[in-house]
Automatic annotation (TrEMBL):
Primary location recorded for the protein, binned into one broad class: nucleus
Source species of the chain: Polarella glacialis (Dinoflagellate)
Record InterPro entries: RRP8, RRP8_N, SAM-dependent_MTases_sf
Stretch forming the signal peptide: none
Name by which UniProt lists this protein: Ribosomal RNA-processing protein 8
Family note: Belongs to the methyltransferase superfamily. RRP8 family.
Domain of life: Eukaryota
Enzyme class: transferase
Family matches, as SUPFAM superfamilies: S-adenosyl-L-methionine-dependent methyltransferases
GO biological process, one term: rRNA processing
Chain residue ranges for the region called Disordered: 1-68, 105-146
Single GO molecular function: methyltransferase activity
Biased composition (Low complexity): 16-50, 112-121
Length: 323
């Protein structure tokens, strides 16, 4: 038995080393891809700007939609104010992806609301005060525009540093994304007990996982947890005792304030979470009216999680699974 324990420990540590190696390889690959991306940005920035279509051949002005589309290609501007060389996809000033569609919307004055990462384009009249657009005189200059104008006037050095900070931010984001993907992959290929060991070894992984998950979920057209929450609010009796199996950050309990919810996950990331393995939750048998699994049947031993939910459910209780 001792020999077996020693052998298992050896296997486990070898396995972890292999996984770490795989993770490092993935990080290297990400960095390489980023460098290639930077090269592409640099070469896009180096393309000399073409003169506007009208200046090339004033006598042969194109008509209609095709002409407008062409003009956008030649004169496209990123919402940050940077000029996009013809055909460029990434803005040489801020590094943001800037499609012709976006540029066209900005040109037509229908651009999306600005985000923290991509500042709004200074309005045309602010760049050229002599040429104000109709109807814009009533709109006062926003004080928040001032730093952007200073940045724009700061010249190539400032532009370069803006580009670099944007590239560094993107690199950090990619690394965070890669760490999350590695963890996610782990959770789907190991048992609950093994997952607990990984998180015990490095508790910071839990935060990394939940941040990564939040970032991913924010991109989905619809988060299934929202559906579960509205179902519980609308169709489940307010006195029902609920068990959220694999609760993550326990948003379900947060949004069902006043209801009785037990939230279980591997790590206690906040006060609402009871840390445990879903294969053995600290609840009496027949104590829940509803059990919820929202994207939580992750471990290779997930049937044990369902068996455990069955043990905790009262006769006639509901097991709600979203996978
Ligand atoms: C993809 S997240 C979903 C979180 C939440 N249900 C939601 O929809 O926002 C799945 C969660 O299940 C947890 N989990 C996976 N296997 C587990 C296990 N064996 N024991 C406890 N929690 C587990 C993970 O830690 C993770 O937080």
């Amino acid at each position: 038995a001792e020999a077996r324990v020693a052998r298992d420990a050896k296997w486990e540590s070898r396995n972890l080393k292999q996984q770490q190696h795989q993770y490092q390889q993935e990080q290297l690959l990400e960095q390489q891809q980023l460098q290639e991306q930077e090269q592409r940005w640099k070469s896009a920035a180096a393309v000399p700007e073409e003169p506007a279509a009208e200046e090339q051949r004033p006598e042969k002005r194109r008509k209609g939609k095709a002409a407008r589309a062409h003009a956008v290609t030649m004169e496209a501007r990123c919402p940050c104010g940077g000029k996009l060389p013809a055909g460029a996809v990434f803005c040489p000033s801020c590094g943001a992806r800037c499609t012709e569609e976006k540029a066209r919307a900005a040109k037509a004055g229908t651009q999306e609301p600005p985000t923290a990462a991509v500042p709004e384009e200074p309005a045309a009249e602010k760049q050229r005060p002599g040429k104000r657009r109709k109807g814009s005189a009533a709109t006062p200059d926003l004080p928040s525009e001032a730093p952007k104008l200073v940045e724009a006037a700061a010249g190539p050095e400032k532009q370069k540093s803006l580009w670099l900070s944007s590239a560094t931010g993107k690199a950090a984001e990619r690394l965070r994304g890669s760490r999350f993907r590695w963890l996610n992959e782990q959770l789907y290929t190991i048992t609950g007990d093994e997952a607990i060991k990984i998180f015990q070894k490095d508790p910071s992984l839990a935060t990394a996982y939940h941040e990564g998950f939040r970032a991913q979920a924010a991109k989905w057209p619809r988060n299934p947890l929202d559906g579960v929450i509205s179902w519980l609010k609308k169709d489940v009796h307010p006195q029902a005792v609920i068990g959220d199996f694999g609760c993550g950050e326990a948003r379900l309990a947060l949004e069902l304030q006043g209801r009785k919810v037990h939230s279980f996950d591997l790590v206690k990331v906040n006060e609402r979470v009871t840390p445990c393995n879903l294969a053995a939750v600290p609840l009496e048998a027949d104590s829940l009216d509803v059990t919820v699994f929202c994207l939580a049947l992750m471990g290779t031993d997930w049937p044990l999680f369902v068996t455990e939910a069955h043990r905790c459910l009262k006769p006639g209780g509901l097991c709600h699974i979203v996978e």
